[in-house]
Design a protein that fits this description.
The complex is a heterotrimer of chains A (about 300), B (about 375) and C (about 425).
Chain A (H helix, E strand, L loop, with lengths): L1 H6 L2 H9 L3 H28 L1 E4 L3 E4 L4 H42 L4 H9 L6 H12 L6 H8 L14 E2 L2 E2 L5 H25 L3 H9 L4 H30 L2 H6 L7 H11 L3 H26 L1 H5 L1
Antiparallel strand pairs in A: 1-2, 3-4
Chain B lengths: L3 E12 L2 E12 L3 E5 L6 H9 L6 E6 L2 E2 L10 E4 L11 H11 L4 H14 L15 H13 L5 E5 L7 H18 L2 E6 L2 H7 L2 E6 L2 E6 L1 H6 L4 H6 L4 E11 L2 E6 L4 E5 L8 E6 L5 E4 L9 E12 L3 E8 L2 E8 L15 E6 L5 E3 L14
Parallel strand pairs in B: 3-8, 3-9, 6-7, 7-8
Antiparallel strand pairs in B: 1-2, 1-4, 4-5, 9-10, 11-12, 11-14, 12-13, 14-20, 15-19, 16-17, 16-19, 17-18
Helix pairs in contact in B: 2-3, 2-4, 3-4
Chain C lengths: L3 H31 L43 E4 L9 H6 L8 H10 L3 E4 L5 H13 L8 E5 H9 L12 H6 L16 E14 H6 L19 E4 L2 H11 L11 H16 L3 E3 L3 H6 L5 E5 L2 H5 L4 E4 L5 E9 L7 H11 L2 H11 L8 H8 L13 H5 L1 E2 L6 H14 L3
Helix pairs in contact in C: 9-16, 13-14
Classes of the chains: A mainly alpha (about 300), B alpha+beta (about 375), C alpha/beta (about 425).
Chain lengths: ~300, ~375, ~425
């Protein structure tokens, strides 16, 4: 460019005139998208959330906050379920995903790409189908429980009291219990945890671990003091990618849970699409969004990610 | 402390079928600056990693202070390493990087603090405690890596091409610095490098490695003056090698005859029992004279013709055809300082050197020696 | 039903609300691209917002280009959406209790007779969920992809009121006009059967697996109240809130009458269900058949004919002592249907008493067709005494209609149900 610009006066002129606009031009399509498909709907949704009325009578802005009051009043349990199930699924995906990502990153060798492919392979099937298949898998007469029930029969006992919903009168069920719902969530979001973890772990120079061991850290200490802190950005990204959608998910609760395990996503879906209760549905959506933002901020602080980048 | 700090006995390391280290026996003395020198792939780094515990030998024995450590993991060895790209922990401050080993050993707060600042003083980085590795230069990172290893007062410090990533000027400076620090702390250094000049500058002893073995072990002067293999002669400095046949001996010196029939005197000990040898002379040992001049008494002499001359400032490098081959000659630009006084292409000259500056290596039978004259 | 005019204006409000002019443009664009016929240009809908006085003329507002004599040409395939266990089956499909193409004798006969393919799908598990899937198309004035669908009274009335059904050309359905049972005529929401003909009538009662209950030492239920003695996580109630609330009202000793039910009664019913939900009770649509097949459910609120036609040997249906709920499912042609004439032929075909008898005698529901009774008795003399087909006077005496709730009560009930079902 510099060499060419000496000969062609248009180059520097063009750059001088419009060069500063280039970054904005590059941003423009994304900004346009964001404004049209995020900002405008968000504003509209906020408007609904402070409105009253019904589809029949029309909605009017009332600035009362009634919808928020209803949302808090009636759906506290579902909010709590979202936090609990979303949180538990995130922890489980982390517990399951970390060893997997670690193995792929450090021991994958020439099978690295194959294993990564296998991790994302379930995505070739739709989310819904995958979840429905868990219904079959975990069913009372499904491939998991049927042999246990008929082959061994030990599940038909009173001592296996795992908790509310899991065992009633000693008749063991997995489907439509908190366990099946959590299993579904964990399964569905596992790749979202593994991939960022893998990327973070893969970036770690193995010599850093050698250096730690050289400096008298045993395996565990080297992991705790070096590998884990360096993988934290991956843990952070993976947790967000898992927690946020898991918290808002309603498919797993719908198909694998029961009325007592419904999450806030189910309520929003029902309020907006079935009952056409736009104010409460919008208020719930906003509260979910705010809740997630707060949770992410707290989490970021706790993990100290800003330190890592500094 | 025993005299021998590190001992390798018949150590072999194979990666699959490939033999990286082939039956090495080494003894590194307490407090010495010991270098493993060789081209890439010669097995020097693998040897170092086995001493550090990062690789297990396929067979053989490694002793540290007389204790068998062959199978001990790195964190159980009183050895520390300065890694090639420093391997500083990016998430920790300089202070915590340096303190890492102390903390693992359970050293407590105030002592850690004083020892870290003492160590940062030693590497001339006081006041860098709070910075992150991304906020310092390569040379500074190098010093931190050194401090991080030395603070643990290891029996042996292993350095894996520690200066490889630095630019030439900084490298020279750090060579001096490393030597100073080594002398100050009195710890045994085992230093891996492919840079012969670096090894010569700092080392007490050098093992020149090639193909998983070391070809010659000795102090820098001995390696340079009396290389015993073609590889060593070529890898350390520039050598002129000419094929020769042993013709006889008289007392302390013997005679060999070159391809053009001229006779050269060499120290008798070098040609014991040999019939065919390669004769070696370092370029700076040769002096050029007018073809009719009388050479100093007892010196070897060869007639030659200058084929090329390159003025290098401090010296002039000539290519002279003599003794059945092409010889490289360096002449300090002292007696002949101006260009007009230099030898010119086509000049007939006389080459002379002291018989004691002559060395002898086994004849060139193999084909895969590195090119003569390569640094 | 007096609420019809309101329902209609509700439709227009909804349209204006959801789509806006941009949406209408998009819909028209999509329609143009896909070649599907948009029966009512959405942009024109808001133009006529004036309330309509009488329910019977409600749907006429949406200008329907297809009202003008549809060509009497058989076209196909006829896309027919129905509920599970609602058609006669033969062979392996009959064993499995699940429809597969070619397994229904009556549908096969129709295809042969009219030389047209019928794409029959058991897509409807509950009214709301199914209508939810076609609502966007209906609101946007696009074809739904279906030619014929079967909806229960309350939902059928809403669909008709919203102008989402095609008018039936009565000249094409002589069997229907002639054979519909008198009791089913004159529904408030479509008094002259301009938009619907009943498919089957049935009752909501209690179903259970006798063997599982016995294995677990539980007595077979005879009343709705007995269900409160069964582990709730082994039971399902219906996502059709009318059925669930209606039966629980009966359990509470309240007359389950859609027109007289009060808010307090609905709340009492919800309070009675809540402990079961806390114990793991779930709500399902027609999928309860799967649950019975998998022995996942020991007892449930079910529709009368299903277990008899598609359940296992141990699956029983009872008319609970407290009473049952009666309802009728109706055939409707959704707006914009591509094969209207064929759909009318199908309506007419199943109103042939012989065909009606063949279907009813298989699925064990009550046929809306005059003369089917006689045909059933001819087919199967034993069926004459089957209370599912021919409810006894005692059963009839205890039948309750919980279909026609006021909008206010429906809203309250939906809200209560919503809380129970966790959403």
């Amino acid at each position: 460019m510099t060499a060419g610009s000496a000969r062609t006066p248009r180059g520097p002129t063009f750059r001088a005139r419009f060069g500063h606009a280039v970054p904005y031009l590059l941003l423009a399509p994304g900004l346009f998208w964001l404004v049209v498909f995020y900002v405008i709907p968000a504003v509209q949704m906020f408007t609904y959330s402070i409105s009253t009325g019904s589809l029949e009578t029309g909605f009017e802005m009332s600035l009362t906050g009634d919808a928020y009051a209803t949302a808090i009043d009636r759906f506290g349990k579902q909010f709590m379920n979202s936090i609990l199930f979303g949180g538990a699924a995130t922890l489980l995906t982390l517990a399951i995903g970390f060893p997997v990502a670690y193995t792929i990153a450090f021991r994958g060798g020439r099978y690295k790409n194959l294993i990564l492919f296998l991790v994302i392979a379930p995505f070739f099937t739709s989310f819904l189908i995958r979840t429905i298949s868990w219904k079959i898998l975990l069913g009372d007469e499904g491939p998991l429980l049927a042999p246990l029930r008929h082959g061994l029969g030990f599940l038909d006992n009173d001592w296996l009291l795992i908790g509310h919903g899991a065992v009633i009168d000693g008749r063991f069920s997995l489907l439509n219990t908190p366990i099946s719902q959590l299993a579904g969530l964990t399964y569905n979001f596992l790749p979202f945890m593994i991939l960022p973890l893998y990327v973070a772990l893969e970036k770690i120079d193995p010599r850093l671990i050698e250096a730690a061991e050289d400096l008298f850290a045993n395996r565990a200490a080297a992991f705790r003091r070096v590998t884990l802190p360096l993988a934290l950005p991956g843990v952070f990204a993976g947790s967000l990618l898992t927690f946020i959608p898991a918290m808002g998910d309603y498919i797993n609760a719908e198909l694998l849970g029961n009325p007592g395990t419904r999450m806030i996503g189910n309520v929003i879906q029902n309020r907006l699409l079935v009952q056409n209760d736009y104010p409460v549905g919008s208020a719930l959506s906003f509260m979910l969004m705010a809740g997630i933002l707060v949770a992410v901020a707290v989490y970021a602080r706790a993990l100290g990610t800003e330190q890592l980048t500094g | 402390m025993p005299e021998v700090d590190v001992r390798l006995v018949e150590v072999v390391k194979k990666f699959g079928e490939a033999v990286a280290v082939d039956h090495i026996n080494l003894e590194v003395r307490d407090g010495e600056f010991f270098s493993l020198l060789g081209p890439s792939g010669c097995g020097k780094t693998t040897t170092l990693r086995m001493i550090g515990g990062f690789e297990q030998p396929t067979s053989g024995l490694i002793e540290l202070n007389g204790e068998d450590v062959t199978w001990l993991p790195p964190f159980r060895r009183n050895v520390n390493t300065v890694f090639q790209n420093y391997a500083l922990f990016p998430h920790l401050t300089i202070f915590e990087n340096v303190a890492f080993g102390l903390r693992r050993k359970g050293v407590k707060g105030s002592e850690v603090k004083s020892r870290v600042s003492e160590m940062l003083d030693l590497v001339e980085l006081p006041g860098f405690e709070a910075r992150k590795p991304t906020q310092i230069s390569g040379g500074q990172a190098q010093r931190v890596a050194l401090a991080r290893a030395l603070i643990n007062r290891p029996a042996v410090l292993l350095l894996d091409e520690p200066l490889g990533a630095l630019d030439l000027k900084l490298r020279k400076q750090m060579q001096v610095e490393l030597k100073r620090i080594q002398q100050e702390v009195g710890i045994t250094f085992i230093y891996v490098t492919h840079d012969q000049e670096e090894a010569m500058t700092m080392s007490d002893r050098i093992a020149v490695m090639n193909k998983g073995r070391y070809e010659q072990l000795g102090d820098p002067e001995m390696l340079y003056e009396r290389p015993t293999t073609r590889f060593v002669a070529s890898f350390l400095g520039v050598s002129n090698l000419l094929p020769a046949t042993v013709v006889g001996r008289d007392g302390t010196h013997g005679s060999v005859s070159l391809a053009d029939g001229s006779t050269i005197r060499v120290p008798a000990a070098l040609i014991d029992g040999a019939t065919r040898v390669d004769l070696g002379i370092r370029p700076e040992k040769i002096r050029l004279h007018e073809s009719d001049a009388v050479p100093p008494a007892g010196h070897n002499r060869l007639a030659g013709i200058v084929r090329d001359a390159s003025y290098l400032g401090v010296s002039t490098q000539y290519q002279v055809e003599a003794g059945g081959g092409m010889l490289t000659v360096y002449e300090q630009n002292v007696e002949r300082a101006s260009r007009a006084e230099l030898w010119a292409r086509g000049d007939a000259v006389q080459l002379t050197w002291s018989p004691d500056h002559t060395f002898v290596v086994p004849p060139d039978d193999s084909v895969d020696q590195p090119g003569a004259g390569a640094p | 039903m007096s609420e019809q005019p309101q329902s209609f204006s509700h439709d227009l409000t909804r349209r204006r609300f959801i789509q806006g002019s941009a949406m209408a443009g998009v819909a028209a664009f999509i329609a143009a691209c896909t070649g599907t016929r948009a029966s009512a240009p959405p942009a024109s809908a808001p133009a006529s917002t004036a309330p309509v006085a009488s329910s019977s003329v409600a749907p006429s507002v949406a200008p329907s280009p297809s009202v003008a004599a549809s060509p009497k040409v058989v076209s196909g395939p006829l896309k027919f959406a129905n509920w599970p266990a609602y058609i006669d089956l033969a062979g392996a499909a009959g064993e499995a209790g699940e429809y597969s193409p070619g397994s229904s004798p009556s549908l096969e006969e129709f295809q042969k007779q009219f030389k047209v393919k019928v794409d029959y799908q058991e897509k409807i598990g509950d009214n709301a969920t199914f209508v939810e899937t076609i609502k966007p198309a209906l609101v946007g004035g696009l074809a739904t992809g279906w030619d014929l669908m079967v909806l229960t009274d309350w939902m059928a009335s809403k669909v008709v009121a919203n102008g989402w059904a095609e008018k039936i050309d009565q000249t094409n359905v002589p069997n229907c006009t002639g054979n519909i049972r008198d009791a089913l005529k004159g529904q408030a929401w479509d008094a002259t059967n301009d938009y619907h003909y009943p498919w089957q009538s049935g009752m909501t009662g209690v179903g259970f697996n006798a063997k599982t209950l016995k294995d677990n030492g539980i007595a077979e239920p005879t009343k709705i109240a007995d269900l409160w003695n069964i582990p709730p996580d082994k039971m399902t109630f219906l996502t059709e809130a009318r059925d669930t609330f209606g039966l629980v009202l009966l359990k509470l000793g309240v007359d389950a009458n859609g027109e007289t039910v009060t808010e307090q009664q609905l709340k009492d019913a919800a309070a009675a269900i809540q402990p079961l939900v806390d114990g793991g009770l779930r709500f399902t649509g027609n999928e309860y058949l799967e649950s019975f097949a998998q022995k996942k459910v020991w007892a449930a609120f079910v529709w009368s004919g299903d277990l008899a036609s598609s359940g296992g040997d141990d699956d029983k249906f009872i008319f609970p002592e407290e009473g049952t709920l009666i309802w009728t499912d109706n055939m409707l042609i959704p707006k914009g249907a591509a094969n209207r004439y064929t759909a009318e032929l199908m309506m007419n075909y199943v109103y042939d008493p012989k065909i009606a008898a063949q279907i009813a005698n298989y699925i064990y529901y009550v046929s809306p067709v005059k003369g089917a009774d006689e045909e059933i008795k001819k087919l199967d003399p034993e069926a004459a005494t089957n209370p599912l087909l021919f409810p006894t006077p005692e059963t009839v005496a205890k039948q309750h209609n919980f279909q026609s709730l006021s909008e206010e009560m429906e809203k309250i009930m939906n809200d209560l149900y919503s809380t129970l079902s966790g959403t």
